[in-house]
């Protein structure tokens, strides 16, 4: 989850700034938006298969926490990028105009005005993205997770992890064994609680962003 958040944060900031600040062509802006919506619409099983082919077949990493983290980061990239783009586009123009009148160049305006004022949008997108990533099974099942036997990662190659969604998937297959059903429902409750907490935290943040944009 930490790896996914790191990867997605870096890429979403780059994409949002590219679309809203550095790209002047409306056609290219539409292409970026279309690409984000296309990625968001891809089924998770497609991410898992493509990720397995690339990370295991091309890069030779095997099952690794790094492969799974990068793949989850790419999955939640549209959610974070769109939230940040909306926040940047809602900023009052007088903020950037005042900064420009003080002699700041475009990069200085981005670092001193745009990003600090847009942090709430990035935060809400991060929470919503993590809520989605927490419940994904297919990507990590193919690239990162094993049911048991994993230890703390010792590197980036052949360093699998134990993941809660995959754990639930395996328990569901063994639900007829004694004691498996209780563990299955317990693990499911933990996962649902995690997703619910992230979503509930993201909701007021999202509402605050919209109110701030409305009165900004």
Explain how this protein is built:
With 216 residues, the protein is an all-alpha fold. The chain has one domain: MetI-like fold (Orthogonal Bundle), CATH 1.10.3720. The chain has 11 helices and no strands. Helix 2 runs antiparallel to helix 5. It starts with a helix and ends with a helix. The mean pLDDT is 82.
Q: Give the total of domains.
A: 1
What is the helix fraction of residues, given as a range?
A: over 70%
Total beta strands: 0
Count of alpha/pi helices: 11
Distance between the termini: 33 Å
Principal-axes shape call: elongated
- Beta content: under 5%
The low-pLDDT segments are none
CATH class (first level) name? Mainly Alpha
Kindly report the name of the CATH homologous superfamily.
MetI-like
Given helix and strand content, the structural type is mainly alpha
Q: Nearest-angstrom radius of gyration? A: 20 Å
* CATH A-level architecture: Orthogonal Bundle
Compose a concise summary of this entry.
This protein is an all-alpha fold and 216 residues long. The chain contains 11 helices and no strands. It is 77% helix and 0% strand.
Pick out its properties.
216 residues; elongated; single chain; MetI-like fold
Topology:
Blueprint: H1 2-22, H2 26-41, H3 44-58, H4 65-75, H5 77-90, H6 93-101, H7 106-117, H8 119-134, H9 138-143, H10 164-173, H11 180-215
Helix pairs in contact: 1-2, 1-4, 1-5, 1-8, 2-5, 3-4, 5-8, 6-7, 8-11, 10-11
């Amino acid at each position: 989850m930490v790896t996914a958040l790191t990867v997605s944060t870096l890429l979403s900031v780059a994409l949002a700034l590219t679309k809203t600040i550095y790209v002047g062509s409306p056609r290219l802006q539409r292409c970026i938006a279309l690409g984000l919506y296309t990625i968001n619409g891809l089924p998770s099983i497609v991410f898992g298969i493509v990720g397995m082919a690339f990370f295991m077949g091309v890069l030779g990493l095997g099952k690794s926490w790094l492969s799974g983290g990068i793949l989850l980061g790419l999955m939640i990239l549209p959610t974070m990028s769109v939230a940040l783009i909306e926040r940047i586009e809602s900023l009052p123009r007088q903020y950037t105009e005042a900064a420009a009148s003080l002699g700041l160049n475009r990069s200085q305006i981005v670092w001193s005005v745009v990003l600090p004022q847009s942090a709430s949008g990035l935060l809400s997108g991060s929470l919503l993205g993590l809520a989605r990533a927490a419940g994904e099974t297919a990507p990590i099942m193919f690239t990162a997770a094993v049911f048991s036997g994993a230890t703390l990662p010792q590197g980036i190659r052949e360093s699998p992890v134990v993941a809660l969604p995959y754990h639930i998937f395996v328990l569901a297959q063994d639900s007829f064994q004694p004691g498996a059903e209780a563990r299955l429902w317990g693990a499911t409750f933990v996962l649902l609680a995690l997703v619910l907490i992230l979503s509930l935290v993201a909701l007021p943040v999202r509402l605050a962003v919209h109110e701030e944009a409305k009165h900004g």
